[in-house]
From TrEMBL:
<feature type="compositionally biased region" description="Basic and acidic residues">
    <location>
        <begin position="330"/>
        <end position="339"/>
    </location>
</feature>
<keyword id="KW-1133">Transmembrane helix</keyword>
<feature type="transmembrane region" description="Helical">
    <location>
        <begin position="47"/>
        <end position="68"/>
    </location>
</feature>
<protein>
    <recommendedName>
        <fullName>DUF2637 domain-containing protein</fullName>
    </recommendedName>
</protein>
<dbReference type="InterPro" id="IPR021235">
    <property type="entry name" value="DUF2637"/>
</dbReference>
<feature type="transmembrane region" description="Helical">
    <location>
        <begin position="107"/>
        <end position="124"/>
    </location>
</feature>
<dbReference type="Pfam" id="PF10935">
    <property type="entry name" value="DUF2637"/>
</dbReference>
<feature type="transmembrane region" description="Helical">
    <location>
        <begin position="80"/>
        <end position="101"/>
    </location>
</feature>
<feature type="compositionally biased region" description="Low complexity">
    <location>
        <begin position="317"/>
        <end position="329"/>
    </location>
</feature>
<feature type="region of interest" description="Disordered">
    <location>
        <begin position="308"/>
        <end position="339"/>
    </location>
</feature>
<keyword id="KW-0472">Membrane</keyword>
<keyword id="KW-0812">Transmembrane</keyword>
């Protein structure tokens, strides 16, 4: 250890030990003086506790002040209270000697005793504060006494700036003051003694001096303000861009929702179109069947008309044949008359013979015509018979169609009866199970789908066998609710649901 180190250790030991001794002497003297003062002022036995409350209160308040400073949460009120207690204990010790005006020397002797105690405690406090600030990297240096004496107003302004703006180093405060003075001199050189002619930005270091800013910090304010303005503009642009992006997202969501809604509407339109096409196909099939039946009736009527026409032609042919036969008989009669007259009239015989031959030829032609007419009549009778057979077949088909229609009506009635029984049984089971309206609706739709396939159907079923409009009409709900009920029914059918009639 060097000599200087040894001297410092010695001084430290002397300060600590001497301070402790002085503090003990001061506390002891103060305690005795305050006890006597308490008894003189009728405090009674509380006189023994009164000095402890005053002197120890000073130590406790200063200790709390040091603790808060250590925690970087100082409370100046504690130090003011400690100083108030210090003034009080000095006054009480001075008053314990009697009247201060009558015996100032004795009063001063009693007042010196607590001053030693307070000085030792304050010295310890300042040492702790100094160590704390050094550990925190903020060595605190106040304005020295000589500056207060030599330049009181500048010293006060410097002290004010140091306290207001947290300038802990007196050396730092001196540097700031020197910078401002030099900068002011340079401004006066450039712009004259009237600094109002200088630009506002150049006057910033002088304007901001009372706020504890250095020359460089003050001159940097415009650039910093521009940078902050730029950052605000960027944040505003980013915010506006974010708002625009959110608006675009909302627009896109709206368009997506509109497209989905349009798709649902188109799907519903397709379903309605499909149902309409099915109805049209069924109506067309019924129309075609009716048309074919009408064609069969018209064909039968046409055949009947053709048969009647053939019979009329046959009658005309028969009449012509009868007339021809009658003409032939007349000719034969005339031939006989001619033969009978041949003997008398030989010369006219050849002529009569020729006439007879011609008559025979005409008779043969008439016979041939009669044969052709008979054949035409036979063909007409055959066509009439075919028409009668067609009418019979058409009548048979009508009877068969009526029988099939009657059977279909009977089967439909039986199916409706069985469906009613099934529905009644299902409703009873649902009442027993206390199902919700939605569950009842789903089961009713499932039964409608099973009914569409018939009681003898086995294997999977297609829920779309029953259209949404039929479901909506049966349940008295909207198309959307009908779609949900059909989906629920599909889930029931997939899980093995069957009507009560077919349930095992």
């Amino acid at each position: 250890m060097t000599a200087a180190g040894a001297v410092m250790w010695g001084l430290t030991f002397l300060a600590v030990a001497g301070g402790a001794v002085l503090a003990g002497i001061g506390f002891t003297g103060s305690y005795t003086a305050l006890v006597n003062l308490g008894f003189r002022h009728n405090l009674g036995d509380f006189s023994y506790a009164f000095p402890v409350g005053v002197d120890v209160g000073i130590v406790v308040l200063l200790a709390l002040d040091l603790h808060l400073i250590r925690r970087r949460t100082p409370w100046p009120v504690l130090r003011l209270l400690a100083h108030g207690f210090t003034a009080a204990t000095i006054y009480f010790n001075a008053a314990s000697a009697g009247s201060i005006a009558n015996d100032p020397t004795g009063s001063a002797m009693h007042a010196v005793i607590p001053v030693m105690f307070i000085a030792a405690v304050e010295a310890g406090r300042r040492l702790v504060i100094r160590i704390t600030r050094i550990e925190a990297g903020r060595p605190s240096e106040g304005v020295p006494l000589h500056r207060w004496l030599l330049a009181p107003w500048p010293a006060w302004m410097m002290f004010r700036r140091m306290r207001l703006y947290g300038i802990d180093s007196y050396q730092r405060a001196i540097e700031l003051e020197r910078e401002r003075i030099v900068y002011r001199v340079l401004l006066e050189r450039d712009h004259g003694s009237d600094l109002r002619k200088a630009p506002a930005d150049a006057l910033l270091p002088l304007t901001m001096a009372r706020f504890g800013l250095s020359v460089d910090e003050a001159l940097a304010l415009p650039a910093e303000a521009e940078e902050r303005a730029r950052l605000r503009a960027e944040r505003r642009e980013a915010f506006e861009a974010d708002l625009a992006a959110r608006a675009d997202a909302r627009t896109a969501d709206t368009q997506i929702f509109r497209l989905r809604t349009q798709g649902k509407v188109e799907a519903a339109g397709f379903e309605v179109g499909a149902e309409t096409a099915t109805a049209k196909a069924r109506a067309h099939a019924r129309t075609v069947a009716a048309g074919r039946e009408a064609e069969a009736v018209m064909a039968a009527a046409a055949a009947e008309q053709e048969a009647a026409e053939a019979r009329r032609r046959a009658a005309e042919t028969d009449q012509a044949a009868a007339e021809t036969e009658q003409a032939a008989a007349e000719t034969r009669r005339r031939a006989a008359e001619t033969e009978r007259q041949a003997a008398a009239f030989e010369r006219a015989c050849a002529q009569e013979e020729e006439a007879a031959e011609e008559a025979r030829l005409r008779a043969a032609e008439a016979a041939r015509a009669a044969a052709e007419t008979e054949a035409a009549a036979a063909e007409a009778r055959r066509r009439g018979a075919e028409a009668d057979r067609q009418r019979a077949l058409a009548a048979h088909d009508r009877i068969a169609l009526e029988e099939a229609s009657e059977a279909a009506r009977l089967r439909a009635a039986e199916a409706r009866r069985r469906a009613a029984e099934t529905e009644m049984r299902a409703l009873e089971m649902e009442d027993e199970a206390k199902l919700t309206p939605s569950a009842r609706g789903a089961r009713k739709v499932a039964r409608m789908i099973l009914a569409a396939y018939g009681p003898d159907h086995t294997g999977p079923v297609n829920p779309e066998a029953v259209d949404l409009q039929t479901i909506a009409n049966a349940l008295g709900v909207s198309i959307a609710t009908a779609s949900q009920r059909r989906a629920d029914a599909a889930d029931l059918l997939a899980s093995g649901y069957s009507t009560p009639v077919h349930a095992s």
